[in-house]
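Risk register update: the risk of archive-format incompatibility is retired. Evidence:
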Amino acid sequence: MLIFNCTEAASKFFNRVHKGKTITPVEYNAPSPVIEDDEPDSSTEQWLVHAITVQRKNVLFVMHVKTRYCVILADAKKADVEGVVQRFADRWLNGVMVHAINHDLAQWIDADQMIEHFRSVCHSQQFYRRSHRSAQKHIDEIA
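Archived output:
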């Protein structure tokens, strides 16, 4: 499972208004206020999502809380949750594969098995409204 912890800016990015009602995938009642207090699960990946605007285009920073690996999604469409998750998953998988090839790890792993495991992890997502001070500082530096 992917858990996307959204900053206030990212929460607003994922909101949309339909017939006067705000629709959002972001839950404001996270299991715990601190990301590290969540129960650890080997198949759960915690990410911090932050949104900014650069030259009138939306840019999302998606940072892995544990490793600080950052995926930048430029020109993201507002409130397009499925599109953002798909772009994120493709970029993350490609980044992992490139890293494995560049560090000569491809000979030691089964790519098909890794892709299947990756897809099973990305199959479900959860969005929470909470932040992580240290990861946010890293995102601010990158931005």
